[in-house]
Amino acid sequence: QLLNHDDVNDAVVVALISDAGDKRLVAYVTHDEAAAMLAEDEEAQALRHDFIDSVKASLGQALPDYMVPSAFVVLEHLPLTPNGKVDRKGLPAPDMSLQQKAYIAPVTETEKQLCEIWQDVLGVEQVGVSDNFFALGGHSLLLVKLVQTINAVFKPENEIAINQLFSEQTICEQAQLINTPMVNDSEMAVTETLGENNVLLPTVYFIPGIAGLANMFSSLVAYANGHFNIKAFNHRGVMDKKQVFNSINDNAGSFTEHILMTQPTGPYVIAGHSYGGVLALEVAKLLKSKGHKVKLILLDTFFEQKLLAINPVKAVAVIEKENAQGMKDKMSEVDEALRQDVTLVYQKQLDLLATYKVSDVGTIRPMIMFANDAYFNVDKYLEKLTYIFSEGVEHHYIQGNHFTMLREEGAETIASLITHHCLA
Predict the structure, then answer these.
(1) How far apart are CA 21 and CA 280, in angstroms?
(2) Which of 83, 167, 386, 408 is packed most tightly, with the most Cβ within 10 A?
(3) Could you tell me which residues are beta bridge partners of residue 232?
(4) Other C-beta atoms lying within 10 Å of the C-beta of residue 424
(5) CA–CA distance from 75 to each of 29, 31, 236, 260 (Å)?
(6) Which of the pair, 184 or 19, is modelled with greater confidence?
(7) In angstroms, rounded to a whole number, what is the distance separating the alpha carbons of residues 57 and 63?
(8) SS3 38
């Protein structure tokens, strides 16, 4: 997507871990006038910011906010390995101070308080009223912390919802938001489009695992670009106040209705990770029953887990521990009420999965991708699947474990398999 900008000669995006342990996307871009932009005078700074603003605006029209890199580094050329590939280890660390606009001091008391809050949340020394939260390294999880802090400081009558700060990204805009009466609309979208949405390309619908959100599939975007669109579901009850579905059938029925409203005619490609694969199968069955063509992708989904575990007690305990730890890491900065909401969804879906039995799959022939580092007896599972799916299954192995398979190399392999085996 970066290369679609007229003034970008070459580009690469990498995910870096900050000193605070936060993961952020950094874009390295080259430009004909990079040397002039990298000088230390004000004119060079203005040129650099104008160029970066232009690139960001272009990306903002094609990508959701959280997929736009939080930092941009302008280079005369990208470092290369002897083989001519980008030398990622040779890329310089981003200087976050260079991401800031010319400093404009806060004037009102609200602006001053907001600057202090940002400095604490982002770990930066100085914030001006025109600085952008995401440009300074902010991301969705830090945004949750920002919302919590702002609402605690500025009192409930001025309560702000997280989706409002996705659109109001500067101190100036947020100060106006705080001082203006507002209606709270914190409901999350049922699905989110990740990356570019090209109407000429097929769409793959992704359903996350237990208590998951759409952004768990964000690592696929770079590899799906130009091949297929990604629409990913958010589970109800996570980050909103909706009631959790009481059954898998109700959940699958709701997702199916949403897909048909979004895309009235097939063919459809439905993918699900872990528990999301159970829902994906039920959605595929519903779509097939309505006469549509459907391809199903199961990402490390295991039915009847306790029967298939290499060590039943240990395997289930490991999964629950990793799920719980992942949730703990993500929710560590969130208030107790929100943490309880997510825990409720997690436990409810875990209970539904424990009692789920596959039935009446018809002529569905899924493609199943297993994590290399499996918790279950895959050979035994494949044998079982031949009885469940009369048309057979296609299976592949993905780098990583149940959770890491959706990142980095695993994401690239998953996108490639979808492109060449499901969409060809």
Answers:
(1) 33
(2) 408
(3) 192, 206
(4) 6
(5) 6, 7, 43, 46
(6) 19
(7) 10
(8) coil
